[in-house]
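As a next step, the fold was encoded as tokens, giving this record:
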Amino acid sequence: MTRGPTLPAHRLPSLPKPLDAFNTAPADEARALLLHCLHSLRWSRRIADHRPYPDLDSLLAAADEAAYDLSPGDLSEALAGESLLELPEDTYSAAFMALSAAHAAYEARFGHAFVIYLGDIPPNEVLGHTLEAIRSRLTNDPEEERVIAAEELRRLARGRLAASLRGAWNCTTIPNAPAVGK
């Protein structure tokens, strides 16, 4: 039995890569999405306005540089956009109370939400790691803690941005993206 002619292979339309989509998005859309990665208007404008980026490493280097250049006001704005870590619903109520109490003590001492990058922490260790970090950082003086918080924000922004551009290009839907927050 002979077979009929073979149909040519179908080619699916190529979808834009996330970095290409980011590079070509309207400026206001790119800025709005960047605000979800780091809650600083100046930072998001600076990153969006320097597009296009040739590769993800170049974008992340620019994001780092812009984060290092945050003014005290920019840092305050970014910190104001963060909030307490959301725990899974099946977490014991004692854990909720411990985290809430530690976070309240931190906020009372430093005047802003506790931020920490959790991208390298296994999910089952997030609560313990966060509580340990809050308690440890409560002993810092305010200037020292501001430097640490700025570094954690930079790491958060970098992690959120990298993950978003490797996937859905949306900083709000990335697991562990919400640092202690969002």
Summary: Residues 18-173 form a domain with the UraD-like fold (CATH 1.10.3330.10). Residues 172-182 have pLDDT under 50 and may be disordered. The chain has one domain: 18-173.
